[in-house]
């Protein structure tokens, strides 16, 4: 199992469009992947789960993966978040 903490940095947080990108990216991996905010853990491959976390800008989240490609999964999802979901230019 691998996990990393990352801050949501895009101005509007993890709203519908970046959540869809996040789920699509997570779906490329065979590992079980979770997104954790405070004490709530959801399946990172579920758009409804991600949206239920209501994650605004500045929130720290944990990405946790368990499986054959866990390291790649966590690293790629962290990079996606750090890029601002390629939605905004900083």
TrEMBL record:
Any one Gene Ontology molecular-function term assigned to this protein's record: transferase activity
The segment(s) forming the HPr domain are 1-88
* UniProt xrefs under SUPFAM superfamilies: HPr-like
Q: What does this protein do?
A: General (non sugar-specific) component of the phosphoenolpyruvate-dependent sugar phosphotransferase system (sugar PTS). This major carbohydrate active-transport system catalyzes the phosphorylation of incoming sugar substrates concomitantly with their translocation across the cell membrane. The phosphoryl group from phosphoenolpyruvate (PEP) is transferred to the phosphoryl carrier protein HPr by enzyme I. Phospho-HPr then transfers it to the PTS EIIA domain.
Q: Which CDD domains match?
A: PTS-HPr_like (cd00367)
Q: Does the keyword Disulfide bond apply?
A: no
Q: Which UniProt keywords apply?
A: Cytoplasm, Phosphotransferase system, Transferase
GO CC terms, sorted:
cytoplasm
Q: Where in the cell is it found?
A: Cytoplasm
* GO terms classed as biological process: phosphoenolpyruvate-dependent sugar phosphotransferase system
> What's the protein called, per UniProt?
Phosphocarrier protein HPr
Q: Which organism is it from?
A: Pseudobacteroides cellulosolvens ATCC 35603 = DSM 2933
**What superkingdom does the record give?**
Bacteria
